[in-house]
Amino acid sequence: MTDMKKRVRLMMLFLVFSAAGQAQNFCGLSNISFQPGEKITLKVYYNLGSIFVGAGEATFNTTLEQMKGRPVYHVVGEGRTYGSYDWIFKVRDRYETYVDTANLLPLRFIRNINEGGYKKHEDVTFNQEQHTAVSLKGTHQVPACIQDVISSVFYARNIDFGKYNPGDKIPFAMFLDDEVYNIYIRYMGKEQVSTRYGKFNAIKIKPLLIKGTIFEGGEKMTVWVSDDRNHIPLRINSPITVGSIKVDMIGYQHLRYPLSSMIGRR
Question: Would I find Signal among this entry's keywords (predicted)?
């Protein structure tokens, strides 16, 4: 795959997966934000001139399983376009991560994607003690406490954003496509946001994007997560080469805590 395609796919992941934590703090966090059985559903809208049209959905399901005798959170993220939009750009993606319950670090990552006819299978085993990632293409040295694209989101839900000031950068390292990406998000503070689900008190962040053929580079994407103990994604806005997109949370099941950030239901 060319460098440009890798960057485009990385930015597409940022569209759905909303946050990550500080690199030096990426070890040893306890899970206090989610629980097995949780399911979150997001809807992707594309701006066609003056209106946003629903083009697809993404879901995240979390279960508790065993891997080599140790308890793990098995998180499955799936994204697909609606059938009526498949002729434009068909997406059928499935991402899986197995995360150590003790420290929220990934032990295995699986990716099976079909994006506009481009198909790829990826299977990575992480050895966090030896700082390696073993993929289908070989063994790679990686930084301590490396994350994958799914584990980083669920790890980030346990970040205490109250420790940061508006404007602070929060860097992290992610392994994808046999490469390590050093990226950051910028904490923007707190504000209220109105979505298609309701109105919320929210935490606002901006991830750094690498310039590609679909998304513009820089900090032009904006993400809002719930300002409560769940820290679930509520809305994502981003310009693209032609028009813009919007992603809204449209449903959830079995959250660990009440969604106390919601001010009113739409």
Answer: yes
